[in-house]
Amino acid sequence: MDLTALLLSRLQFAFTVSFHIIFPSFTIGLAAWLTVLEALHLWTGRPAYRQVFEFWLKIFGVAFGLGVVSGIVMAFQFGTNWSVLARMSGPIQGPLLSYETFTAFFLEASFFGILLFGRPRVAPWFYLFSTAMVALGTTLSAYWIMANNSWMQVPVGYVMENGAFAPDDWLKILFSPVLWVRFPHMLLASYLTGAFCVAATGAWYHLRGIFAAEAEIMLRMGLYFAAVLLPVQGFFGHLNGDYIHRYQPVKFAAIEARWHDEQPASEVLIGIPDEAAQTNHYAISIPVLGSLIASMSFDSKEVGLTDFPPQDRPPVIIPFFTFRIMVGCWLVMLLVAWAGSYLIHKDRIEQNRLLLWLTFLSFPLPFIATLTGWFTAEVGRQPWTVYGVLRTADAMTPFLTAGTAFTSLVVFCAVYSFIFVFGTYYIHRLLRAGPEGRLVLPAAAAIPNRPMSVAAEHHLAPAARHVAPGQ
């Protein structure tokens, strides 16, 4: 086995999944918010809700396309770089990925066309239904991916047959208590990502003194949603810690950088883990708090990394720091959301430029929290691909060479970077144009298989171009 090829393959998959997760974590929450906006427009008849909906629909379309393109490649890597994993886990992972296609992709693709082309052709209630179906499709996609990953984290409902993991109980796989802790955690992370991006955009427009009505909707709804969801997310984060503590004690010890058994255990707030010396340099710890967090007890005994063989331990420094970055982002977002919601309640947020700037600058935080959360989960799972039963080194394609892995890594990095730069640039242009930018309305003859027919509308009369959003 080529250890260099193994490292490069891990870097390649880490890069592609890190790039890809940015877009679903944004579009899942945005799809749900678009459904709320469309419902509010039908309920109140307020044109601003329609204007904000049309504005964010364009951004959703770009981000959705980037997510689909970047996600397709990951499935192919199971065959190119991880063929042993594909062969052994195919009876379980194959159906799970297929279910995502049949339920999520078909639902999204079918009704997304109605969102883009169907408003003049369908009843308002059916357009709202289509928006909800797109949101449901993105949610189902997250569910099947989390079901797949959660099975790899804590494999259940299988038996070994002819050297492969054969499903023995699909109910255990699909209703694993680990899955139903991790799936809401990921779903809430996506909702928070959408909420903070929307709130940050509203704050940006307020700071520039433009699009006042639409900016108020974005800022208020984004911060209110975040203020409510963040405590719930903290609760599910604690439940995630409980499952790690129970099923993956070595990962829990790595996250805590706890080298030796402690009773009661202290909590290392910050420090520099040293794997060679099996200690933490410059550590700041709080006595007893480690036991309280881990077991809700003041005197529980918590295991250390030295209880496990060195070959079964994950690299400590990555999960240790990424977990703390994730929690730090959560705390900052909580402060911004609660302070902003209080000022909104007092009708003083537009005058508080400091809070507007903090809200605007906070938009990267949910993305960072999502990425660092995934790094904690996936790096902390090492050296296992399927935890406890299949090592990462044994899951790689046996004949893969370092040269081949390096070439594909370079190509992926170049192509993904190209896509990201131009996708981000285009989204930035949409954001600068704002919700009152020129809205291209589909021509009467526009149909999904002739999308360029909208170009025929460039000679529309000015009054038709700037039709009131509520009409």
Task: Outline the structure in words.
The protein is mainly alpha-helical and 471 residues long. The chain has 15 helices and six strands. The strands form three sheets. A two-stranded antiparallel ribbon has the order 1-2. The chain has a two-stranded antiparallel ribbon with strand order 3-4. The chain has a two-stranded antiparallel ribbon with strand order 5-6. A hairpin with a 2-residue loop joins strand 1 (158-161) and strand 2 (164-167). The N and C termini lie far apart (65 Å). Residues 437-444 and 451-471 have low confidence and may be disordered.
How do you describe this structure in short?
The protein is mostly helical and 471 residues long. It has helices spanning 3-44, 47-80, 83-117, 124-153, 170-174, 179-208, 212-247, 249-256, 289-295, 317-345, 353-361, 365-381, 392-395, 402-433, 462-465; strands at 158-161, 164-167, 267-274, 279-286, 384-386, 390-391. Mean pLDDT is 87; it is low at 437-444 and 451-471.
What global shape is seen?
A: globular
Distance between the termini: 65 Å
Rg from alpha-carbon coordinates:
24 Å
Largest sheet geometry: 2 strands, antiparallel
**Fraction of helical residues:** 55-70%
Mean pLDDT score, rounded?
A: 87
Could you spell the SSE succession in H and E letters? HHHHEEHHHHEEHHHHEEHHH
Poorly predicted runs: 437-444, 451-471
Report the portion of residues in β strands. Answer: 5-15%
How many E strands? 6
Write the layout of secondary structure elements.
Blueprint (H helix, E strand, L loop, with lengths): L2 H42 L2 H34 L2 H35 L6 H30 L4 E4 L2 E4 L2 H5 L4 H30 L3 H36 L1 H8 L10 E8 L4 E8 L2 H7 L21 H29 L7 H9 L3 H17 L2 E3 L3 E2 H4 L6 H32 L28 H4 L6
Antiparallel strand pairs: 1-2, 3-4, 5-6
Helix pairs in contact: 1-2, 1-4, 1-6, 1-12, 1-14, 2-3, 2-7, 2-14, 3-4, 4-6, 6-7, 6-11, 6-12, 7-8, 7-10, 8-10, 8-12, 10-11, 10-12
